[in-house]
Design brief:
This protein has about 170 residues and is of the alpha/beta class. It has one domain (about 5-170): Alpha-Beta Complex (Maf protein). The chain has 7 helices and 5 strands. It has helices at about 5-15, 30-35, 55-60, 65-70, 75-90, 140-160, 165-170, and strands spanning about 20-25, 45-50, 95-100, 115-125, 125-135. A 5-stranded mixed beta sheet has the order 2-1-3-4-5, with helices on both faces. It starts with a helix and ends with a helix.
């Protein structure tokens, strides 16, 4: 499976940079966390996550604003951002990923079609989100969403993430 080398590479980078990770998942139903924890030793960097399938959990545990849910909906860039920020705060990780979307086959509308997914990465000095509309069936859309989140994290770790020691040195220096 192509996710294992990706998750392995992410684990090596997180470990090398001394960073920890959390996730907040909705439409992927825990698949993102599963892919991350398929790697032996992932407990070195993966702290945990929240499976927030309902708006009640998004709001109550992750701190997604009621106004965001009412005006933009659970499947929105703003909700994905607030989910990632909430997971990072709740779990006290350095980096957090979130995924929210409509896996299908039902649930879509003209404005928000089946397959619409938002992912977000929250880290010190970095907030980055992406939007996708996946064409597959439910399982394929969930996997594509989880892999997109991992790819976003890999991009961050490869190009933007400082080593934790560098951050601490700047803070105390």
């Amino acid at each position: 499976m192509k996710s294992q080398p990706l998750a392995q590479q992410i684990g090596e980078l997180l470990r090398a940079r001394g960073l920890t990770l959390a996730v907040a998942e909705s439409c992927t139903g825990g698949l993102l966390g599963d892919l991350i924890t398929d790697i032996p030793g992932s407990s070195d960097y993966f702290l945990g996550g929240v499976l927030s399938y309902s708006n009640q959990v998004k709001q109550g545990l992750l701190g997604v604003q009621a106004e965001t849910l009412a005006t933009q909906g659970a499947v929105s860039a703003q909700c994905a951002a607030e989910m990632a920020q909430g997971a990072r705060r709740l779990v006290q990780s350095d980096v957090a990923l979130s995924v929210t979307g409509i896996a299908g086959p039902g649930g879509g509308s003209d404005g928000k079609p089946k397959g619409l997914t938002y992912i977000h990465l929250s880290a010190p000095g970095c907030e980055r989100g992406m939007r996708f509309v996946w064409p597959g069936d439910r399982r394929a859309n969930k996997l594509d969403s989880a892999l997109a989140a991992l790819n976003l994290l890999l991009e961050y770790l490869s190009t933007m993430a400082p080593r934790l020691a560098d951050v601490q040195e700047r803070a105390h220096g």
